[in-house]
Structure to design on (605 residues):
């Protein structure tokens, strides 16, 4: 139903626009495209920043420019990518409202899911059926629909600025056709054929439908402009003349030799770009690349099957996703991760655990219960899984002997949407310590039940009990139980993750000394070969939390910290080298910790 809502909304907006007074139309038109240009430019800038952030070409603009200028292949990649982004930007400026409607309206009816979807994820959900509203088909369909709407409005004889609308749509169509060629040539983007392979199980057919849409819109726009872009509507003879003009040799000769105006040149250029796309399709469809020893461009590869499965999972088509994953010939880390996401989306935790274990085996990483649990929880938090799935993963962890600190770490990121007593209750239900969900509305009775359960688990999971108590404050405050839990904590020895959690939740005046001690341990740990990258990621949020305590001390516990002490901690982190782990998130977080410490040092100075 998402596509129907989008189409009906666009139809209503077009009708409102064309039926409004002419003066209001001009103002609305101008405002719409001004907003479109701002949105388009900000999107392109955002993409460039994203590339720099992920070190696509360099760590900074200075190194990026140097890299491009002195590396010839990168010059070509940069130029073709720029052309592609400009073409996409022009279409975004024209059709930004389509993206907005697709992003906002498709949130309806998504009950039971966490609201972590981006507009583009919501867009991909709306696109799945019938498939015409995907990344490649969204703008062509919007153009074709706009042409059909204008045709219908013109039949009514309404007096509007048809020629301006036709030129805007023609510019957007030509930009897309140029973008298709640029994406095929650029090593920095997916080619059109590759893009279609990764989204549709019949890429040949979808390529043909795309050309039909583009060709039909182009024919309508060029014919309408040749007839001065105003009613009466062009006749079938005029459409025939335009169609023949695109392919007659005399027309190309006249285009090259005649002194044409800029409008005629642009119209001819749009026809040329369509022919380039059509020729590319014919060459690929004919099998010519195979004859010269290249792979069939339309043959779906293992990586394409994985991408198809990803899109199917996003659209809740789990059987289809399973079929695509079953077609993968050689399983890799990427295919096993996709399989893990599929089983988590289905709520099958046992199968998800097996997929996570196989994924870690392929990466030659630890496959114990704690490591598998970490991988599953990371996917649960990244994906749009239900709270029920998250609870099932936590129960699996308890049943499979996952360590106390790993469970406590997971509980800190647990988001049941409640606080106080209800948070404590939801956390214990998620862990499976409550066999049945307490339904009492009496807060005293509920607190008594929670007290009994926490006393029971504090022997085996004292850190979990401690975290639950702390997160249940201020409503759930029980000094006797807190003392009992803390005593059990002191009898245990924990890994650096457990100690970091304790340091954050039991705030003391020696926070800088604690940070220094933990930092030294972490510096030793990062060089240990038997420690995986995901184990190293766990404690980092708590280091940032301790730094936050130094920057903004708790009210009533303010203390002046010595610059020399902060300098010692910074020196430790300057020697922490995470690049050898080949994990972007790890490297980026360590870099952020150094940045925060330098900021603290400057403030104290």
């Amino acid at each position: 139903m998402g596509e129907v809502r989008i189409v009906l909304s666009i139809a209503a907006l077009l009708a409102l626009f064309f039926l409004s007074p002419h003066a209001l139309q001009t103002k609305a038109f101008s405002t719409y495209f001004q907003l479109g240009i701002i949105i388009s430019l900000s999107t392109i800038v955002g993409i460039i920043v994203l590339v720099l952030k992920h070190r696509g070409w360099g760590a900074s603009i200075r190194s990026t420019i140097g890299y491009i200028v002195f590396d010839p292949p990168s010059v070509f990649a940069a130029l073709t990518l720029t052309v592609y982004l400009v073409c996409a930007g022009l279409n975004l400026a024209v059709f930004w409202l389509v993206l907005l409607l697709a992003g906002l309206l498709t949130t309806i009816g998504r009950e039971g899911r966490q609201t972590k979807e981006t507009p583009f994820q919501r867009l991909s959900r709306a696109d799945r059926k019938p498939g015409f509203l995907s990344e490649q088909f969204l703008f062509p369909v919007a153009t074709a629909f706009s042409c059909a709407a204008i045709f219908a409005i013109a039949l009514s004889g309404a007096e509007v600025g048809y020629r301006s609308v036709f030129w805007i749509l023609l510019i957007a169509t030509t930009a897309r056709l140029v973008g298709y060629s640029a994406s095929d040539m650029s090593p920095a983007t997916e080619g059109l054929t590759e893009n279609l392979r990764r989204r549709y199980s019949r890429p040949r057919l979808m390529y043909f439908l795309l050309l039909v849409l583009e060709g039909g819109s182009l024919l309508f726009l060029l014919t309408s402009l040749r007839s001065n872009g105003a009613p009466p509507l062009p006749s079938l003879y005029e459409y025939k003349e335009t169609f023949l003009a695109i392919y007659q040799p005399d027309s190309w000769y006249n285009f090259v030799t005649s002194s044409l105006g800029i409008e005629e040149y642009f119209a001819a250029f749009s026809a040329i770009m369509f022919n380039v796309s059509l020729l590319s399709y014919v060459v690929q469809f004919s099998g010519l690349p195979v004859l010269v020893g290249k792979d069939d461009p339309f043959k779906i590869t293992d990586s394409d099957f994985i991408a198809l499965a990803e899109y199917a999972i996003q659209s809740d088509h789990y059987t289809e996703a399973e079929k695509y994953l079953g077609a993968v010939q050689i399983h890799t880390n990427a295919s096993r991760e996709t399989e893990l996401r599929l089983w988590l989306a289905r709520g099958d935790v046992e199968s998800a655990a097996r997929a996570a274990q196989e994924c870690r085996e392929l990466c030659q990483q630890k496959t114990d219960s704690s490591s598998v649990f970490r991988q599953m929880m990371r996917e649960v938090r990244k994906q749009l899984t239900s709270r029920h799935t998250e609870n099932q993963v936590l129960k699996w962890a308890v049943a499979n002997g996952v360590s106390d600190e790993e469970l406590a770490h997971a509980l800190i990121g647990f988001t049941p949407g409640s606080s106080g007593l209800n948070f404590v209750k939801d956390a214990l239900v998620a862990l499976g310590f409550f066999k049945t969900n307490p339904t009492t509305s009496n807060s005293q009775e509920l607190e008594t039940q929670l007290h009994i359960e926490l006393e029971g688990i504090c022997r085996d999971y004292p850190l979990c009990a401690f975290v639950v108590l702390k997160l249940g404050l201020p409503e759930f405050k029980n000094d006797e139980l807190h003392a009992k839990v803390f005593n059990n904590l002191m009898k245990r020895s924990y890994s650096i993750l457990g100690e970091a959690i304790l340091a954050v939740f039991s705030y003391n005046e020696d926070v800088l000394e604690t940070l220094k001690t933990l930092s030294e341990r972490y510096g030793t740990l990062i060089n240990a070969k038997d420690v995986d990258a995901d184990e190293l990621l766990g404690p980092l949020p708590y280091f940032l939390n301790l730094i936050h305590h130094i920057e903004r001390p708790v009210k009533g516990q303010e203390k002046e910290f010595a610059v020399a002490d902060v300098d010692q901690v910074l020196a430790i982190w300057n020697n922490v080298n995470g690049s050898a782990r080949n994990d972007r998130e790890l490297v980026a977080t360590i870099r952020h910790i150094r940045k925060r410490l330098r900021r603290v040092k400057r403030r104290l100075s």
